[in-house]
Amino acid sequence: MDKTQIKEFIPDKYNNLQDFWEKSYPADKAEFLNRLSPEMLKDVIDIIDYLSLGEIIRDLDYKTSYYIAEKFDSDKLSKILTTMYADDAADFLGKMPVGKVKDTLNKLKTDQAKELQRLLGYSEETAGGLMNTQFIVFYQDNTVQQVLEKLRRIISEPEMIYYIYIITRTKKLKGVLSVRQLLSSEPDQIIKDIMSKDVIKVYVNMDQEDVADVLNKYDLLAVPVVNKNEQMLGIITIDDILEVIENEATEDIYKMAATTNVYDVKGGLLSIIKKRLPWLLILLVGDMMSGSVIQSFEESLKAVVALAFFIPVLMDMGGNVGTQSLAVVVRGLATNKLYLSDYFSHVYREIKVGLIMALILGGSIGSIVLLWQGDAILGIVVGVSMFVTLLTAIFVGTSVPFVMDGLGIDPAIASGPFITTIVDVTGLFIYFYMASLLINNFL
Question: How many CA atoms lie within 13 A of 342 on its CB side?
Fold first, then answer.
C-alpha cells in the first residue's frame, strides 16, 4: 500500500490512518473512503475494523458500498448488518451482488432476516422502502411513569426518540406524544389522556416525494408509516428525507438535460449509453425537422442571404426563454407551489412578462439589423420574428410541463433539449414565413 497517496486524503490534524479512523466522525470516514481509488480502497479496507463500517455504510456511494459487499464474505456482511438500523441494512442488501443476499440473510437471526426481507419487498421509492422498523410505541393505557421507566431501559436502541407513538393491542396507530409533552406531564397520568390523536401519517405505498412533502409541510422530524388497516409498520426520519430530496432534485436535473447519472456504475458504460442515446436520437429527428423548414423556404433564403446571419440568434434566444419558463413550471410542480389548476393563471402571467421581454428584445435586434445591414425590411422581419418566437417559446415552455403532469408523466421529462428543439422548429418556421410574406410584397 502506498501510504503517501492515502495520506493525501487524510486531514492534516490526524497523524495517520489509524488516528483518523479512531477520532473522526462517521460522515468524514465515509467521505474518505468514497474518494479512494479501487486500489487504495482495497488496502484500506484490509486494515480497518470491518464492524465499524456499519455506522458509515449509509453514507457510502454505490461504488464503495458495492466493493465492500463484494469483498467481504456473508459471515462478515451479516455482522455488519446487525450493527445497522433496519432501513439502512435493507438499502445495503440492495447493493449486494444477488448471490450474496440470500447467503447473508441466512447468517442472520430469523426475526431480523424476515424483517429485512419484508423491507426488501417494498419499492425503493415508496414509504415502505424508506421506513425504519425500529421505533418506540406504547399502549394507550400506560401511565407516564411506566413510559419513562421503559424509555430509560431502551434509550439507545431506536434511531430517534423525538416522538413516541401510541397504538392499540392490535397495533393500530391512535396517537403521538412528544418527549417534551411526556416530561411535562404528571407521572400518574394515562397516556391516552395527554396524547395528540390527530396523527399525521403516511401509507406504506406512498411515493417518497409525497412523503418528503408531508414532512416539509408539517415541519416534522419523523412521520409514522401505516398500512391500509392503520397498523403502524415503521417510521421515516428527516435524515432519510433529506437524502430523498437530494436524489430527486438530482434526478430532475438529469432529466432536464435529457441525460443520466454518469456516476451510476450499476450497469457500466453500456448502460449509460443505452439511457442517453435514445434521447439524442429523438432530438436528432427534431433537429432534422429544423433543416426541413429551412429547405422549404430555400427561395427566400436565396433572395436575401442575410437571413441566414440571424438564424443562430433567433434559435438561441427562443431556446433560452423557453427553458426559463420550463424551469419555473417544473420546479413549481415538483415543490407543490404550482398545480394543474394554476395553468391558465400562470400562462397568463408568463405571457404578460413575455410581451414586455419580447418587445424589448425584438425591438433591439430589429434596430441592430437595420444599422448593420441598412435594410429596414430585413430589420422588421428579424424583429417581428424574434417577438413572435419568444412568445411562442414562453407558451410552449410553460404549457408542456403542465400537460405532462396532467397525463401523469414526470414534468422533468419536458427537458431543456426537447423544449429547445420544439422552439427551434417553430421559430424557424415563423422567421422564414415572415420573410416570405414581406419579401414577396416589398422586394
Answer: 16
